[in-house]
Structure formats: C-alpha cells, structure tokens
Amino acid sequence: MTANRTRGQKAGLTREAILEGAVRLVDRDGLAKLSMRRLGAEVDVEAMTLYHYFAGKDALLDGLVEHVFARADFSLAGGRSWQDGLRDYARSLRATLLEHPGLVPLVVSRPAVTEQSLRIMEHGLAELHAAGFGLRAALDLVYSLNEFVLGHLVSASNPAVPDTASVQEGHLTGIDPGEYPLISEAIRADRDREADTRFDVALEAIFRGFGDLRRT
Amino acid sequence: MTANRTRGQKAGLTREAILEGAVRLVDRDGLAKLSMRRLGAEVDVEAMTLYHYFAGKDALLDGLVEHVFARADFSLAGGRSWQDGLRDYARSLRATLLEHPGLVPLVVSRPAVTEQSLRIMEHGLAELHAAGFGLRAALDLVYSLNEFVLGHLVSASNPAVPDTASVQEGHLTGIDPGEYPLISEAIRADRDREADTRFDVALEAIFRGFGDLRRT
DNA sequence: TGATGATTCATACATCGTAAGTATAGACTG
DNA sequence: CAGTCTATACTTACGATGTATGAATCATCA
Fold first, then answer.
1. CA B204 to chain centre
2. Over 70: is that where the pLDDT of B122 sits?
3. What's the domain range around B27?
4. Nearest to B60 by CA among B26, B97, B93
5. How many domains are contained in chain A?
6. pTM recorded for the entire structure
C-alpha cells in the first residue's frame, strides 16, 4: 500500500555531517533538545539511520565533544614562558567552549581521557618540569588549571551567579542593594569589565600562586 | 472490580521525607535513576502524589540541592584570617558534595542564586574588603574560588582525568608508561597523597596568588 | 544477471514527565 | 447524627524518548 519512498542509499551521509548537524542543533536549541529523532530531521534522515554511524546516543555525544575539540588547537606551544603556554591553553579551551555553551554540560560529564588530552598533559608536564617545577607540583598545576577553567565555564553557562554580562546598563538583575550592598557595589564597579578580564585576572593569580612551588 | 487498596490520607508524607528519599536514591543508584516513579516507590507512594508536594521535576531538583546545602554550614566564620575563612568554606563545600557525588551534576547545572549563597557571598566580600582587598578583587577571588571548587568536583565525580584515587597499588589504569612517561611518573609520585592534599595545595596557591591583589 | 553488502526506513517496546480526572479520609458544619 | 469541604492519594492516558528488530532499497562487482 503505502509506497516506501526513499530507502536504501542516499546522498553521502557521513559521521562528520551528522556531528555538524548535532553542533548546529545544540547551538540553536540547547542540549536538551538533542534527540535522535530531532537530529535525524536536522540531517534529513530517519532517527534509526543514525545508529548506522554511532553505536548509541552516548557514542554520538562522545563524538560530538571530540568533533568540537578537534577543530580547536589546544597546543601548549613551547618556547615561551610556562605562563604564556598555559595561558594560551586555558584561553583557547575557554574560547572554544564559549562558542558552544550547550556543550559545556557534556564536556564536564564525560571522561576526558582522550588521546589528545593525554598528549597535551604530557607536554605540559614536560614544559613545567623544564621550567623548574617538580613533577608533583606540575601535576597539581595542570589539574588545577583544568579544574578552574571547567568550573568557570559551568558557572558561566548557566545564569548562576549574577554575572557582569547579565548586568546591563546598571539594572542589577534581582539583587537588592539594600540587602546585599557589597555585592551590588562590587557588581556595579565591575560593570565595565569584560568577562574575559575576570578570567585573565584569575589566571594570573593562579600562576603567581603556583609559581612559588617551583623547585619543589 | 479491582478493589482500590489505599487511597486517601496516609501516614504523614512530607516534602522533607520525599527529599530525603531522593537523596537516598541518588546516593545509591545515581542521578540518572531518579525518576518520579522510582522516587515514588522509594517513599512508598505513587509517582503522581509527588506532584502534590512539588510543582514538577525541576522544582524537586531545586529542592534537592537546597535540602542538601541546608544541612551544611558554609559559614565564612569571621575573626580569623581571610585565608582561614575561605579555606573552611571551600573545604566544607567540597566535603558536602563529596558525600553526595550524584548531586554534583545537579549543582553545576542549576542557577545557584539562593538566599543562602548570596548571604555567604556578601559576608565574604565584607571580610575580604576588611582584609584590604578592593571590592573588585574580592569579587574576583570569591568567584574564582567557587569556580575552582566546582571544577574540582565535576572533575572528581567522573573518572575523567586519571585521578590518584583510581590508581591503586601501582596499576596505572590505562596509562601507557611508554607513551606518557611523565604522566605515569607523576601519578606514581602522587600515589601516596590523599586527594584532599591536592585540593589543599591548590587552595593555598590560589590564596597566595590573589593575596598580591590586596589594597587594589 | 544475480548475489552481496552497505545503507535506510518502518514498526514496536519500555520508560519517562506529567495533564486530567477520580477516589478516600478526616475536619468542620449543622 | 448527616452533609459538605479539602487535603491527600491513586488511575489512566498522552506524547516524547532511546533503541531492538527486521525488512526494503541501492551500489557494486562477479
């Protein structure tokens, strides 16, 4: 009866194309709206077809993180000071995830022992070691840096703490200056600073703090 | 036909009891297994009954976070140095969430502008201001500290980075010493340290780094 | 041509959050 | 006592989800 329209092979559908569709969908509608059926519609195919390219939704999500990270070079380019190397790394990691805020919950909820991340870590340890850090201190620093960046991102990706960005033109969203005078005042003083600046200030503080651990 | 067993009133079911059941369920089976039906079973009631106490699942999850935090005193007890105050705060925040690791994804995915968190922040700003920090620097420090703790927790709550805890008795899970000699070495050197120690070391580094920002 | 393997789809199932409607028990009124 | 009200609890049902299963179609090569 019902003529089955288009089965069998179709125009070249690839893992890449699916992942790009997923990125588009997440960027547009958020992670919650990423269902197999929706993603199928996005790349013009039935949901079950996706299972030919990915073992399951988890595999797809893993691929998604990988895909986004693959296009971002987090190299700890050597040759300069360890601060410069780590700063570039942290900034580019942050920038990449800020471009796709919907992916932040994914990244933090997924084990990140990929080939690439391990290589970066190894490289980072080598540089820090050469810069005079003991291996243990170097490991502490690399861990802490990653943890700070991730924490910064999860805090930034939901309207959690009253952020500078959410305070436009002086209307402090929901913070009563009478009840919380210092918060209001601090946020007001912070109004003209970019979020990037806050991030950088914290970075430098972390570097200063860990700098004392060299030759341990 | 089928005799309807027990409708109408029952033993005193309360919001508190439901939330405690939810905590139990999450601690036992993880956040993913927290469904209204399961939670209903846990507190011996049908799923829909829960909607009498909570507007929806989101409200329940909000309540869950609140409930756990309510039992943890994150006071920035004054009178001592600002380092002591912030350290106690960070440690107890971490300790609380380590007791309920299943809640970590919830905490980081939920705006945390509760009454309590704002009060703590206000209090923290006051202390830091008194200790010689400019308001802006104080805000940076409080933010960064929170972000670091959260990042530390999300990293610890999944088997993401090869953690010291996962390296038992010298068998480095999945890290090839040939390919990543420094990581293996660093982890081996780290074997005998508690995770608490790593956290504390990072805390002190952050304090040192931000300490230079006083009188700004 | 016919066979083979890659690709796509239709159907079905269990589970989820929850809207809508119904039944019961206790408190209050007369 | 009977009658009513309300808080509490349950039943049923709907749409959305991830995915197991198996059939249908296409490209390719013998």
1. 20
2. yes
3. 15-69
4. B26
5. 2
6. 0.88
Which nucleotide comes closest to A50 if you measure CA to C1'? C8
Kindly tell me if the per-residue pLDDT of B18 is higher than 70: yes
CB contact under 8 A, B180 and A118: yes
Q: Which two tokens stand for residue A141?
A: 């620093």
Q: Hey, what are A21's tokens?
A: 């569709």
Chain B segment 88-117 residues within 8 A of A by beta carbon are 105, 108-113
Instruction: Identify the helix (H) or strand (E) that includes residue B16.
Output: helix B15-29
**Do residues B137 and B30 share a domain?**
no
Query: pLDDT digits over A75-105, tens only?
Result: 887 778 999 999 999 999 999 999 999 999 9
- Token pair for residue B83? 């380092």
Residue B57 phi, psi (nearest 5): -65, -40
Best mutation target, B94, B114, B136, to test chain A (most A CBs within 10 A): B136
- State pLDDT tens for residues B32-52: 999 999 999 999 999 999 999
* Residue B127 three-state SS: helix
Domain co-membership, B114 together with B206: yes
- Indicate the residue type of A155: S
The pLDDT tens digits for A2-51 are 334 567 777 789 999 999 999 999 999 999 999 999 999 999 999 999 99
Q: How far apart are CA B131 and CA B138, in angstroms?
A: 10
User: Which one of A87, A145, A155, A157 makes the best mutation probe of the B interface by having the most chain B beta carbons within 10 Å?
Assistant: A155
Query: How far is it, in rounded angstroms, from Cα B19 to Cα B71?
Result: 12
